[in-house]
Design brief:
homodimer; alpha+beta; four-stranded antiparallel β-sheet; 5 helices; 26% strand; DNA-binding; transcription (chains A, B); ArsR-like_HTH (chains A, B); Tscrpt_reg_AsnC-like (chains A, B); sequence-specific DNA binding (chains A, B); transcription regulation (chains A, B)
Chain lengths: 168, 168
DNA sequence: CCTGAAAGTATGACTGG
DNA sequence: CCAGTCATACTTTCAGG
């Protein structure tokens, strides 16, 4: 990916509702060109979609917790993510290396809700849980570093490109 | 918050670029009314902003890890979040209950990058780290459950519903 | 791959139930 | 608090360098 595409992605991660007009000004292209690039980025899957950022406190889900799970019986087929997908309190599910099998991020209304969700997790996926309550969130979902200077790290790339220089 | 506002928030978490026209159709109000409600939701901080969802693989950040940290010297002032904020590889920082002080979510290009970031975390915040590598992400950042559970029992005027299968 | 322009559509403010 | 209208701005497509 090249410099202008990175600038577009960076701008849209900061404000997903930026108009093509503003975007064109930011990156120094015409509106049509920017529009074309955004469509290509969406089509290639670089931009997967757009979301509103909501306040979980305002949605009455002020309690966040990480729930590490591991199966009671490791010989059983491991389909925990599917068996837990129906629980709307689970924000994210990560398959992890280490002692645990999965790490879940859950958001609930309070301790009583957390207790209920933990029970549902245990019964639905036949797992044990180890829960870490989040006390506060200094920052979350920060835009990734998308610099204009792509650092090539140890992967083979087309021979025509050379590290650190702009390619045509 | 009431039912229609919840429906609006749910729709916008699923697609942050929905037009007010589409939104009005979904919730069964006029464009003007929906527009007014969205502005109030933004103003009240329920909707904090809009973002593009990007593919971290496409951004050449395919390696995700959780880094639990705790200070070398617990008597020192605990300002780890500020001292780590400058590291762009840190996606999120959670203050947690339990053995560790903070849980960081980091995204990097590969193992070599992870090693470098861990060193930077340790020196910048004077902490020890315990890292859990993410192998895969079955799902992430799912829209929270918003509707169907009003806080106060009571029914306002029924809104005409049409075409309801969005944002589970 | 870019620019520029034209048609269709959404937005934002305002009037009025 | 909701609906309708209108001027302005944006989006989207098409022709062309």
């Amino acid at each position: 990916m090249e410099e202008i595409d990175r600038a577009i992605v960076a701008a849209l991660t900061g404000d997903g509702r930026l108009s093509y007009t503003d975007l064109a000004e930011k990156v120094g292209l015409s509106v049509s060109a920017v529009h074309q690039r955004v469509r290509r980025l969406e089509q290639r899957g670089v931009i997967k979609g757009y979301s509103a950022r909501v306040s979980f406190e305002a949605l009455e889900l002020p309690l966040t917790a990480f729930v590490a799970i591991r199966p009671f019986d490791p010989s059983q087929p491991d389909d925990a993510p599917e068996r837990l997908a129906h629980l709307p309190e689970i924000d994210s599910c990560y398959s992890v290396a280490g002692e645990d099998f999965y790490l879940l991020l859950v958001r609930v209304a309070g301790p009583a809700d957390l207790e209920r969700v933990l029970q549902e997790i245990r019964t639905a996926a036949n797992v044990t849980t180890r829960t870490t309550v989040v006390l506060s969130t200094p920052y979350e979902h920060r835009p990734p570093k998308i610099s204009a200077e792509p650092a090539v790290r140890g992967r083979s790339r087309p021979a025509a490109e050379s590290a650190g220089s702009t390619a045509g």
